[in-house]
Model the fold of this input.
Amino acid sequence: MDKTQAEISVPKPEFRFDLSHAGIIRLVTAVIAVSMALYHIWVILPPALGGQGTPEAIIFRGTHLLFALALTFLIYRRAGTNAAPSPLDYVLLILAVAPVSYLFWNYDYIVNRIYYVDDLSLADKAMAVLLVVLIMEATRRLIGWALPITAIVFLCYALFFAKVEPERLLDQLFMTTEGIFGQPLGISAAYVMIFVLFGSFMERTGTGQLFMDFALSLTGHTAGGPGKVSVVSSSLFGTISGSAVANVMVDGPISIPLMKRTGFKPHFAAGVEAVASTGGQIMPPIMGAAAFVMAEFLSVSYGQIIIWALIPAILYYVACFAAVHFEAKRHGIMGVPRSELPVLSTTLRERGHLFIPVATILIVLYSGYSAPLAALAGTLLCFPVAALRASTRVNVRIPIIIDAMIDGARNALAVALACACAGIVIGVVALTGAGIVFTQAVLGLAQNYLLLALLLTAVAGIVLGMGMPTTPAYIVMTSLLVPALIKLGVVTPAAHMFAFYFAILSAITPPVALAVYAAAGLAKADLWASGWAAVKIGAAGFIVPFMFVYEPALLMIGDWPTIIWRFILSTAGIGLLAAGLHGYLLRRATLWERALLIATAFCLVKPDWVTDLIGLALVLIVIAAQWPGRDRAPLPAKPARPV
Done:
């Protein structure tokens, strides 16, 4: 295991002093990034501990955006990230900083004017246009064209179809907290930044190795063990990264080669890693950034979001785990010999203390404190906890702490700019009433049939998510599609969770499946084969949202007997769906047995006692047919190669 441990060790610090042009830019970037991290820590700290407390909305969100714009134009340069900034990059940097600085300089004027009534000055208009354009350019550099084009479409709708006066539109977007400086950017500033910083601190203290060794020691020896290791470790990595692609790039270099060595086909290995890593955003206790947006939109605590998300996340990972198990059994793929795996007791003794920051976040959250304060407590504990034992004390050094803050700031940029750009869309929707128009259009298309409305919403979520991160995709869906679902009778938490899920699942849905692209590259596998393998492995992920819409008990809404009963049947149904899709239950399944298993799965996941009885009858038929041959080996076992 020495090689494996070396591969997943904490990256060496990259921060170096260099007096060349590029070196000076790196130094300036590092100073801004560290300042951004320290600022967000400072505003979260209670005044009793030396903190300032959260500033007024425009100041707080504007400062967050100012840091994000400055870092974006310094790091994501027009000529490429390895080149020094061009003169154009410097010009854009100055122009991007100017509008936010203008708001700060004229703060009294901004907060005392009556928006929509007091006319904008020429400077107000110029700064508003400048900020809108440069936010879209910064967003394009970070995540591509999809979200900026969406913003442009909505701006055109406002100006040319809704006939909104340009001055009023600029007022909404720039001079109020209903546009660029609206709730999405506020969530990025208050929640996302500190949780991303926590993930960066966890990664730098060696928690990645803990997760991998923990997963190997638990499941590495079982049938298809490396695939199950990927499922377990990726769900754990979700606590330190809200990005499916980031999870793949951290976990994949270890789990994918292990899966290939033990007999899994490259495209299947890529599919497993992509699906498992994508689920990190829905896996409590620390989910993706969109979960914090949902908490704010619904005016509930983040702890409540965790409760709603728990059973669907378990079902998602049960399906992924079962897919790996049945595929391994069908092909006779064994696990890694125990002698070559980490020992669980040794892993916990040497690195188990690194779980303390995660546990701290949960304790602080459920003690009634805010999510940002809980994340701050976990963040500040990371390096002191790492210093408790010699095995992790090597990571407690000033350069590594600085690098952790730099990485945290850099990793928060995509969400910050996406939220600012999404604020443009939200501002237009609020000003023009486009949300009501869109809701009526969806209701008209669905003809009051809930299933059709759900299918339209699912397709929209996947399409939106193909070109933009989960957070802005979810925000757009919340504005345009969720109200239609609620009007058709879906309970509000289920409607929001439905949109949240499908914004995430675009990462594994061809043709644009970013998590699959990353995993297929690591596995050296065909993109399309990997994509369809991911859809097959993650099939339950596409079904679970429909399940909790029709049965809110899966969100822990309702009485406990119903919640427990539906959870048991849904878990069985999801497992049987994986068995049917992958062709194995007690032995290799024939075509008719696979069809019955899939039919059983759909019967059990539908919340109705009649379908429950039908499903139980069907599965008994399959078990009776397979029982006589259950002890026969399906194929000669393939011994695992050394790790």
User: Anything to note?
Assistant: The CA atoms of residues 253 and 522 lie 7 Å apart. Confidence is low (pLDDT under 50) at residues 1-15, 633-643.
